[in-house]
């Protein structure tokens, strides 16, 4: 009898498909990550909490970029422009116009969406390298405006950007722990929204456009409209990251709109994976932790980070997440 039970258990284990193994391992890791995130401020140092905040903000930013790079197949070097517009939007709304934060945030996101629709209508008429260069050109144009305009306080930037007023809940967002949970909540909502969009019929059309624009057009889809829609959603997602970043530092300056920041976002997506919603979050974590760790070891950390990135691309060509999935599938 014991031999029959052993054989039955072995057979059941062997019958588990690789896809089911990946789903199970992913669920375990996701659950562990959520529980770890909830407990982090109480089990670790303030420095670790600070790093976690930076990772979550970077993860939202990278998620917005991945809507273009991974889902739609459009590589952009201009998403830092929208991150900066998010920060400047609430900065101007609260410190210059005197509007409350609860009004400045939605107004900023609406304005970013309108602006992104106009810019996207121009940019999405191109593809490949041309799309990359025109998004870079728009980003540099807004970067120059942020430096020159008095409204943005030029290269000195804007300070005094407020955090949300949580007094009705008996909380103070200036507290690092309270602000951490605020960022965690927004991150969960933002990533869930991105996942829902990717898994929706709209996301399926974007994936079809990525594979073949001509085939998608032949199926009756208005390709240009879908690409502009993806551009707008990506821009708003990046603007959310900009709002959080400016609240985190109480400050925004033109560097947040630089093409270098956009490039870092693309690196996060490549490191993590372009094929999954979790990829940008994982890539952001690897990017921030590697950058911080190397900066402690040497002042020339960017040189070594470049080497680190090349090694990641060489050994994990489809990203860390896909490498993990492949390892789970091949596990006997």
What can you tell me about this protein's structure?
The chain has 332 residues and is mainly alpha-helical. 77% of the residues lie in helices and 1% in strands. The chain is built from 14 helices and two strands, in the order H-H-H-H-H-H-E-H-H-H-H-E-H-H-H-H. The protein has helices at residues 2-14, 18-43, 46-72, 79-96, 101-123, 128-148, 176-199, 201-211, 213-218, 223-249, 259-272, 278-297, 301-315, 320-330; strands at 158-159, 251-252. A two-stranded antiparallel sheet has the order 1-2. Helix 4 (79-96) packs antiparallel against helix 5 (101-123), helix 4 crosses helix 10 (223-249) and helix 5 (101-123) packs antiparallel against helix 10. Residues 7-13 have low confidence and may be disordered.
Name the overall outline.
globular
Q: Find the count of extended strands (DSSP E, 2+ residues).
A: 2
- The SSE string, one letter per element, is HHHHHHEHHHHEHHHH
Looking across the biggest beta sheet, what order are the strands in? 1-2
N/C terminus separation = 26 Å
- Helical content band: over 70%
Give the class from helix and strand content and strand pairing: mainly alpha
* Main sheet summary: 2 strands, antiparallel
Number of separate helices: 14
Uncertain residue ranges: 7-13
Question: Radius of gyration over alpha carbons?
Answer: 22 Å
Averaged pLDDT: 87
| SS strand fraction | under 5%
Topology at a glance:
Elements: H1 2-14, H2 18-43, H3 46-72, H4 79-96, H5 101-123, H6 128-148, E1 158-159, H7 176-199, H8 201-211, H9 213-218, H10 223-249, E2 251-252, H11 259-272, H12 278-297, H13 301-315, H14 320-330
Helix pairs in contact: 2-14, 3-7, 3-10, 3-11, 3-12, 4-5, 4-6, 4-10, 5-10, 7-8, 7-10, 8-10, 11-12, 12-13
